[in-house]
Amino acid sequence: MTEYFLAGLNGKSFEINLLIVDIWKKYPQYFNDNSKISAFFGGFDNCCWNGGRENRQNRSVQLSDCLKTIKQINDLGISVRFTFTNPLITEKEYDDYIGNTLMKFANNGMNGVIVANENFHNYLKEKYPNFHYVYSTTNCTTNGNIYNEMYDKYDILVLDYRLNKNKLFLEQQLKLKNKIEILVDDCCPSCKYRKQHFQNVGKYNLGEQIDISCLNPENYGKYENPKNFYESLLRTLENSLTYEEIEEYKKLGFNKFKLTGRSQGRRFLLDSYIYYFVKPQYRHEVRKILQQRVDFSLYDEK
Question: Are 81 and 134 in contact (CB under 8 A)?
């Protein structure tokens, strides 16, 4: 079984995720065989444990609504994965009320947590053993040996996307391929500032006033505002995988693939889902179904 993991626990990306799940259930013949959407991942506002992206302090977000969203997703048979990947979490943040409330509510055996701090991982795993735990790509680990050493500690390990095209490593050196999750569509190129960027986001999410924009002057404007999903894919083929490459990787034993397209517009996200999930000969049919369900002119905005 091929598993896909989609970004979005709230907002517009969450709406699109629900839409694609519904269409997949009604028209399974159009979608990739022996495949499913296994999880939605992301963070709810106001939790300092969040990492990877900025944690918004949003007073309008009610915790009760977040709990309803978790139940809604689980009722569809889909896992929720919290992106608790702030690398700078210390013991003084372990008692965060929102984080612990989310964990207690979702502690039903269905859900998972993505982490990037080893001590925090150990704490959560001891307190909430019913979750599956995921080694985060924000660790920025390109040392292949580390993945082989981490299998006993984590249920799933997300590969650093800079290893996506290292065929020798993927085919011959990486063990237990069924525990590896591949990030297929990251919109950033290989970057020496990547780990520092996540550190800065971690500081920001802990309340420090710090600039969290891109640190690499060579990237400014280079990968921003693509006209559509297909243009973005062509720009990022250094690390992004095509549909055909994913099919090749399935034959090697990989069966877990992660999509991150939430930073682009809604129409962009729909296009990426059609591209990755739908059999090529049926993409036009699925697009027609989508056009009956949504006003695409409204989906050009982020």
Answer: yes
Six-digit token string for 106: 């979702």
Beta bridge partners of 40: 6, 80
116-165: per-residue pLDDT in tens? Answer: 999 999 999 999 999 999 999 999 998 988 999 999 999 999 999 999 99
| 153's tokens | 């500690």
Q: Are 185 and 261 in contact (CB under 8 A)?
A: yes
Instruction: List Cα–Cα distances, 256 to 77, 182, 229, 237, in angstroms.
Output: 17, 6, 21, 19
Q: Inter-axis angle of helices 63-75 and 97-105, to 10 degrees? A: 30
Kindly give the interhelix angle for 243-252 and 266-277, rounded to the nearest 10 degrees: 50
Q: Give the Cα separation of 111 and 277 in Å (integer).
A: 22
Looking at the domain covering 2-300, what would its CATH class be?
A: alpha beta
Least confident of 21-30, 199-208, 250-259, 293-302: 293-302
Residue 170: what are its φ and ψ, rounded to 5°? Answer: -65, -40
In one-letter notation, the amino acid at residue 155 is D
Q: Distance between CA 45 and CA 198 in Å, rounded? A: 17
Under a CB-based contact definition with an 8 Å cutoff, are residues 58 and 23 in contact?
Answer: no
Q: Beta partners for 81? A: 41, 112
- pTM of the predicted model, to two decimals? 0.92
Give 167's contacts (C-beta < 8 A, 6+ positions apart). Answer: none
| Helix 266-277 and helix 283-293, axial crossing angle in degrees, nearest 10 | 140
- H/E element holding 18? helix 11-26
- Domain layout of the chain by residue ranges: 2-300
Query: Rounded to an integer, what distance in angstroms lies between the CA atom of residue 98 and that of residue 44?
Result: 9
- Mention every residue, 6+ apart, whose C-beta is less than 8 A from residue 136: 51, 52, 83, 85, 114, 115, 116, 158
Asked if 123 and 94 count as a contact pair (C-beta separation under 8 A), the reply is yes
